[in-house]
Amino acid sequence: MATEGQSPPMSWRDSYRGMSSDNIKGLILALSSSLFIGASFIVKKKGLKKAGASGIRAGVGGYSYLYEPLWWVGMITMIVGEIANFAAYAFAPAILVTPLGALSIIISAVLAHIILRERLHIFGILGCALCVVGSTTIVLHAPQERGIESVTEVWDLAMEPGFLLYAALVITAVFILIFHFIPQYGQTHIMVYIGVCSLVGSLSVMSVKALGIALKLTLSGMNQLVYPQTWVFTLVVITCVLTQMNYLNKALDTFNTAVVSPIYYVMFTSLTILASVIMFKDWDRQSPTQVITEMCGFVTILGGTFLLHRTKDMVDGLPTSMSSMRLSKHADEDGIDGEGIPLRRQDSSRSP
Fold first, then answer.
1. Each residue of 2-40: pLDDT tens digit?
2. Subunit notes for this chain (predicted)?
């Protein structure tokens, strides 16, 4: 029995108030985005294979896939997924939406196993399970979306000293990487290109979220297009996305995709969560236990993503000698040696 003057302990039903309607909408949109994007990779690959059977393969400079309807179905599916992802940021905090991008990797891997007959190793299955566990942990403990009534409120958050300092450090680091490190180390150090993509990406997500909120409020009857801040955020989104695409393409062209993808995901997601915590103060509305639980979920997703990528080419029961031959083959084709060290691709037909 509780002593006089002390309130009885709260049960977990009282402490857990559930997800807000906005968070649920954002969650559904983020899950839909992962489904569409994950499926798009498989559909596009089917289209590329079909086009390559009747024309010049894309890998050797062919463009016959542009005449293949299946490839366009995959491209449209990816665009729908990206639109759903964009909309998700308008309803839910970035700390909920961004990590769920790992689910597209799971969907792609599972569909490749079923449709393309690409073997999914037992450790790959474990990686998928870890991603699901980590995502579930984050979903159950994500902060409620901050109530915002105008795009000017988002602008005020962006103009606070903490986020201005973060943005200044990011822009400074990006310029240093572009003008000093890329000319010297861009072709030999994978972190240079990915560093630019990830740093710029954290700012682009904050701007995408601001623009998404502006469009959501506009569609609900509160016109935000009359505010100059909306167009400033639009300009930032366009600039950041174009920069990301440019340097991500350089990274993919120079290094093995299996190495670029997990490193980029880890850096981009980590910096995006940091930017969101600084700008929208997501953790101010949570207890230390919730914050720690979210971080554990995020680390679990990172572990699952790494495991899935690291074992994607492994085959159960493969003898050691054959495994060495397989690694040697990938070293020649993809520019990665037997110890998983990314090397520069040596493609003489590639334009400088």
1. 444 454 554 444 444 567 888 889 999 999 999 998 888
2. Homodimer.
> What gap in Å lies between CA 255 and CA 98, rounded to an integer?
24
342 SS3 class: strand
Asked if residue 58 has pLDDT above 60, the reply is no
Q: What is the CA radius of gyration of the chain?
A: 22
Which DSSP letter does residue 181 get?
I
Q: Which residues contact 249 (CB under 8 A, 6 or more apart)?
A: none
Q: Compute how many other C-beta atoms are within 10 angstroms of the C-beta atom of residue 149.
A: 9
The alpha carbon of residue 211 and the mean position of all alpha carbons in its chain are separated, in whole angstroms, by 18
How much of the chain is in helix, strand and coil states, percent to nearest 5?
Answer: 75, 0, 25
Yes or no: say if 206 and 274 are a contact pair by the CB < 8 Å rule.
no
Element (H, E) at 350: none
DSSP string covering 83-151, please? HHHHHHHHHS-HHHHGGGGHHHHHHHHHHHHHTS-----HHHHHHHHHHHHHHHHHHHHPPPPPP---H
Number of H helices, E strands in the chain: 14, 0
Distance CA 8, CA 24 (A): 31
Helix or strand holding residue 75 (H, E): helix 69-91
Higher pLDDT, 107 or 9: 107
Q: Hey, what are 182's tokens?
A: 């890329």
- Cα–Cα dist 272/265, whole Å: 10
Residue 33 three-state SS: helix
Q: Residue 336 forms beta bridges with which residues?
A: 342
What does the alpha-carbon distance between residue 186 and residue 195 come to, in Å, rounded to a whole number? 11
Q: Residue 69: its pLDDT value, please?
A: 86
Residue among 91, 112, 71 at smallest CA distance from 27 = 91
What CA–CA distance (Å, rounded) separates 90 from 214? 8
Over 70: is that where the pLDDT of 335 sits? no
Q: At 344, give phi and psi (nearest 5°).
A: -70, 140
